[in-house]
Design brief:
This protein is α+β, with helices and mostly antiparallel strands. Helix content is 25%, strand content 39%. The strands form two sheets. Strands 7-6-11-10-9-8 form a six-stranded mixed β-sheet. It has a five-stranded mixed β-sheet with strand order 1-5-4-3-2. The radius of gyration is 18 Å and the shape is globular. The chain starts with 6 loop residues before the first helix and ends in a 7-residue tail after the last strand.
Length: 253
């Protein structure tokens, strides 16, 4: 009988691949699997499990990093998750991966790593009923409008105890709708604030009431862009938690 790995197992196994066993790539990746990293082009030419095994073997010879998965967003044919990495010097950073599957193998992967660790505890599962996927996607579009300067939407989009973690630093954090609106207003007043738009299809998990989506931030003046990712939790029809990481380069796919 053919064993099909679920996305929670894929999340754990992907981290194990980097931590201890590069050969796990063969059970995770399609033959044409491609990867994109927000901080550099080193993975751009790595295609499929054989090249991945070679790359990770070389990486582990140079770096002693330990990856630990945290929050899973499971949409069956795509999934995303929050993770931590502990470096050899003891520094811990938080990241997010987004993955798309084809025939039960990861075919596309995007990796983001923050400049710091999210110290807040992960959200606890609760017994609330699943949220309609269309409701979550609609919230995402309102979130993007908010990010693009519609600060007045904050009270409708996020809960009173909302928390935003910014991978770039605490200056981008926000607690509650008032702080979030202030943050959006400050960013809108900067010289040439970027325009945010969703890239590809959001990863919607109606059972957990989580969502993650890739986005592109494009400056209005010269059109340069970088890729980013947001991972959010939903409670009572609004976002309760958000992690937002901005990359340093545009998407390749």
């Amino acid at each position: 009988m053919l064993f099909t790995m679920d996305n929670e197992k894929r999340m754990i196994t992907w981290c194990r691949m980097w931590n201890e066993d590069p050969s796990l790539a063969y059970g995770l990746m399609s033959d044409d699997c491609v990867q994109w990293s927000d901080h550099g082009a080193s993975l751009d030419t790595v295609v499929g499990p054989h090249e991945q095994e070679q790359f990770v073997t070389g990486y582990r010879a140079r770096h002693v990093n330990v990856f630990s998965p945290r929050v899973l967003v499971d949409a069956s044919d795509r999934f995303a998750y929050l993770w931590d990495v502990r470096k050899a010097d003891g520094q811990v950073l938080t990241g997010i991966d987004v993955n798309i599957l084809t025939d039960d193998r990861i075919r596309e992967n995007w990796t983001f790593v923050a400049e710091r660790r999210c110290e807040q505890s992960d959200p606890e599962p609760d017994a609330a009923p699943r949220t309609d996927p269309a409701t979550i996607e609609d919230l995402c579009h309102h979130w993007v409008q908010l990010r693009n300067g519609r600060a007045e939407l904050a009270t409708d989009v996020v809960t009173d105890d909302f928390d935003l973690f910014s991978g770039a630093g605490p200056g981008g954090d926000a607690h509650g709708p008032s702080e979030l609106a202030d943050l959006i207003e400050r960013q809108a007043k900067t010289n040439d604030p970027p325009a945010i738009r969703i890239h590809r299809q959001p990863v919607v998990d109606p059972a957990r009431r989580y969502v993650a989506f890739l986005w592109t931030a494009e400056t209005r003046a010269d059109g340069t862009s970088v890729g980013g990712v947001d991972l959010l939790t939903v409670r009572s029809g609004r976002f309760a938690r958000a992690w937002s990481l901005t990359g340093t380069r545009p998407f390749r796919y």
